[in-house]
């Protein structure tokens, strides 16, 4: 493909573990409303821009790598999530006929290389933005945002304002007590599906309808790369007894001693509430740009606690 291409999808695409590598400027669109693409992610070459006018389905995570730019410019609510590991992502989602819009259900910024730019303050729920290992830049672009807390793993997280014409105000309200709807559950049918849903608290697995449902959770956070290494080493990731349909606890998974989803969620909720009690949720990243070669403008932050 050359420059200034248009890739038009006539129906929903499930590319499985496949990805798309863009070497030129491209617009990806659906021929009708609601078209989705499911796959491993997109890799965009340096100085190239891909305008993404479609969505990924609920429960799927789009991975963006490559030094180029991905511009999210669909319509309505995108139920999928995104992990940004390199380059630039511009969130410019448009409202649908019901005035609803959400660029993604969740946004992860990792590796320290990427920048995510918000074209408006209502692109997505700020509380569903997190900075993973080494973080990266969230450019609020002159927009005011309110967070309960800024979720970050280390000091690589940066909240910046590269809009030289508009001051941005960032407000931190503090954590409220966790609620049951914040406990995330994901049904899986095979072990390889876990890597697509690493934000979930509980995984459910049922081998056959007449066999019991298992409720399991990871004992510690794992990255996609770590899970891939486990499979490549031919280690047992989920230890299933095929005769009984029961999963046995191992070094990766804890088996919850419950028989229904409600009880499983209540157990995790109790742990979340206990963990939140008496804690001060600090942000140990940076407000403002640390690179003098980049545009810097005023960003003010307030703590309402």
Automatic annotation (TrEMBL):
Going by the record, the broad EC class of this enzyme is hydrolase
Q: Does the keyword Transferase apply?
A: no
Location within or outside the cell: Secreted
E.C. no: 3.4.21.72
Q: This protein's superkingdom?
A: Bacteria
What GO molecular function annotations does the UniProt record carry, in alphabetical order?
hydrolase activity
Q: What is this protein called?
A: IgA-specific serine endopeptidase autotransporter
Which positions make up the signal peptide? Answer: none
Species name: Mannheimia haemolytica
Keywords of the record, alphabetical order, are: Hydrolase, Secreted, Signal
Primary location: secreted
Question: Has UniProt tagged this entry with the keyword Hydrolase?
Answer: yes
State the GO CC annotations.
Answer: extracellular region
InterPro entries given in the database record: Autotransporter_pectin_lyase_C, Bact_Autotransporter_VF, Pectin_lyase_fold/virulence
